Amino acid sequence: MARHATRTCLRLPGLVAAVLLAGCALPGVEITALPARIDYVCANKLVLPVARAPERGMAAVLVDNQEIVLRQKDSAVQERYGNGEYSLYLDGERAMLERNGQVIFGPCVSPVPLPTYYRIP
To answer: Is the whole model's pTM more than 0.70, yes or no?
Structure first.
């Protein structure tokens, strides 16, 4: 019995090292590839149409048949846009739109799975 325990203990450091190295092998931070146009499905079956132009630092949303243009802002989420009245948060397949600090669309999700890629930090 002691002999079997010794073999297990000798293999354990190798197993731990393999698990730790596997975690280090990831190529970077996983990011969702957000399309230029997506219609998010929100609570109460509301639809939030979003058109993005990140290379220009802009996004537009459609609220009550009115297009609202927003500028890109710094954020902890993947992307955030705002204009002083409205704030749009995009994080992976999730989205939320606020007006004057109150959530008017949310929580919202992509109706289709979005592809992901790895960004090296």
So the answer is: yes
How far is the CA of 94 from the CAs of 11, 31, 58, 87, 107, in angstroms? 43, 12, 18, 14, 7
Q: How many residues does the chain have?
A: 121
Strand, helix or coil at 13?
A: helix
Q: What is the pLDDT of residues 43-75, one digit of tens each?
A: 989 999 999 998 899 999 999 999 999 999 998
Q: How many CB atoms lie within 10 A of CB 67?
A: 10
CA torsion 52-58-62-66 (nearest 10°) is -150
Which two structure tokens, joined as six digits, stand for 112?
Answer: 């289709």
Asked if residue 34 lies in contact with residue 79, where contact means CB atoms within 8 angstroms, the answer is yes
